Amino acid sequence: MGPMSVLARTCATADGLALEAELRPADGGRSDDRAGRATAAVLLCHPHPQYGGTMRAGIIGSLFEALPHAGATVLRFNFRGVEGSEGTHDHGNAELLDVLAALDTLVDEVDPALPVVVAGWSFGGDMALATYDDRVAAWLAFAPPLRLADHQAVARDDRPKLLVLGQHDEFRDPADIVAETEHWQNTEVDVISGASHFFVGRYDRVVELALDFVAHVTAG
Question: What distances in angstroms separate CA 13 from CA 103, 124, 213, one per listed residue?
Answer without folding.
Answer: 10, 17, 29
